[in-house]
């Protein structure tokens, strides 16, 4: 039940970002209109107190679509100790079942300190559909990463897509990053556990906190990567320009960025405008995979109540540096 509460908080953060003025600061994303505003404040209070949600409040959140079902999830290990707040689960690709990884969600709790002191917790509550699709896409096209240095930005509490590159591709190196420290602590534990199990193809896999708006974080890796990728990171008004700048600076001169994100109002377009101004060429793909397109059409037809194309269907952007 705790995870449901946390999940609801993230949905809330994202739906607020999609609906209204988006900002990187969780408190600023809370809308003020009544009675929705009051209900959302109640929702946040409940997150902080770790209380159960009642049915009525759950309706306040708009995101109820969870997944494209590209990975099967099984419990890998029961909770054993007090410190082991979240159970390990096994994520296996449905289409490429030879690729499987042990993951841990940060679903134990989002405590008061986490919410008040960290700048964004949307990556700490679930793997969003864009990340799932990016992970699937990386498995399907694992050959494109051969001998390349790859960095995932804003990968959240698992950086699932970067992990898939590390287990499937003959990649030179993979760096998994997010701006949230709690997310990266979880990613570090995931790497350690899977290294022990010997599932990575590359020995050079690492993780670290990388804030797009932090000069030191970006400058120490300037020009280092052939491919930078991210999923569902375009909706934060406050950080969109920094994200474009970070992608540009982290890439080597002929590098490419692979970005999956839903339209979320005008946020994807705003990202594209900024990227063009930063001298990127952009290819925009709506139908990049037959299976995902078919699934999307089916969801649109059969689940209009939970599936909203604007919020849930990830488009693929390929950014190439000009010059
Ligand atoms: C919606 S979550 C997406 C997480 C993951 N990619 C997924 O789709 O499941 C957005 C992520 O961007 C990260 N983020 C937001 N602003 C950031 C910044 N300025 N620098 C680095 N990461 C940031 C958050 O910590 C969060 O994990």
TrEMBL record:
A Pfam short name: Methyltransf_16
Protein name, UniProt field: Calmodulin-lysine N-methyltransferase
Principal subcellular localisation of the protein: cytoplasm
Taxonomic lineage: Eukaryota, Metazoa, Chordata, Craniata, Vertebrata
Spans through the membrane: none
GO molecular function ontology, one term from the record: heat shock protein binding
Region (Disordered): 1-30
Complexes and interactors: Monomer. Interacts with HSP90, probably as a client.
Species: Panthera leo
Reaction(s) catalysed by this chain's protein: [calmodulin]-L-lysine + S-adenosyl-L-methionine = [calmodulin]-N(6)-methyl-L-lysine + S-adenosyl-L-homocysteine + H(+)
Compartment(s) of residence: Cytoplasm; Nucleus
InterPro entries: CaM-Lys-N-MeTrfase (IPR025800), Methyltransf_16 (IPR019410), SAM-dependent_MTases_sf (IPR029063)
Keyword S-adenosyl-L-methionine: yes
This enzyme's EC code(s): 2.1.1.60
Segments of skewed composition (Low complexity): 13-22
A single GO BP: mitochondrion organization
Keyword vocabulary terms for this entry: Acetylation, Cytoplasm, Methyltransferase, Nucleus, S-adenosyl-L-methionine, Transferase
UniProt keyword Cytoplasm present: yes
Known role: Catalyzes the trimethylation of 'Lys-116' in calmodulin.
Bias (Basic and acidic residues): 1-12
GO cellular component: cytoplasm; nucleolus; nucleoplasm; protein-containing complex
């Amino acid at each position: 039940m705790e995870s449901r509460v946390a999940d609801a908080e993230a949905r809330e953060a994202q739906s607020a970002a999609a609906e209204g003025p988006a900002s990187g600061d969780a408190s600023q994303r809370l809308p003020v209109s009544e009675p929705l505003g009051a209900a959302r404040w109640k929702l946040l209070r409940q997150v902080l107190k770790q209380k159960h949600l009642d049915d009525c409040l759950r309706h306040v959140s708009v995101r109820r679509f969870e997944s494209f079902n590209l990975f099967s999830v099984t419990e890998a290990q029961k909770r054993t100790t007090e410190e082991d707040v979240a159970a390990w689960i096994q994520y296996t690709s449905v289409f490429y079942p030879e690729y499987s990884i042990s993951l841990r969600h940060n679903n134990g709790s989002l405590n008061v300190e986490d919410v008040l002191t960290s700048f964004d917790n949307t990556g700490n509550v679930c793997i969003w559909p864009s990340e799932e699709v990016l992970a699937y896409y990386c498995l399907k096209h694992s050959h494109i990463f051969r001998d390349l240095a790859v960095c995932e930005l804003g990968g959240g509490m698992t950086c699932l897509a970067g992990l898939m590159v590390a287990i499937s591709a003959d990649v030179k190196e993979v760096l998994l990053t997010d701006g949230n420290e709690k997310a990266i602590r979880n990613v570090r534990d995931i790497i350690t556990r899977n290294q022990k199990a010997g599932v990575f193809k590359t020995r050079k896999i690492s993780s670290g906190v990388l804030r797009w708006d932090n000069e030191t974080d970006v400058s120490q890796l300037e020009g280092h990567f052939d491919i930078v990728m991210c999923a569902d990171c375009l909706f934060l008004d406050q950080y969109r320009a920094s994200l474009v700048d970070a992608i540009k600076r982290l890439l080597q001169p002929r590098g490419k960025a692979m970005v999956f994100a839903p339209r979320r109002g005008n946020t994807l377009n705003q990202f594209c405008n900024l990227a063009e101004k930063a001298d990127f060429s952009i290819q925009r793909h709506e139908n990049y995979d037959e299976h995902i397109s078919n699934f999307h059409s089916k969801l649109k037809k059969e689940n209009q109540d939970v599936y909203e194309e604007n919020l849930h269907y990830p488009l693929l952007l390929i950014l190439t540096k000009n010059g």
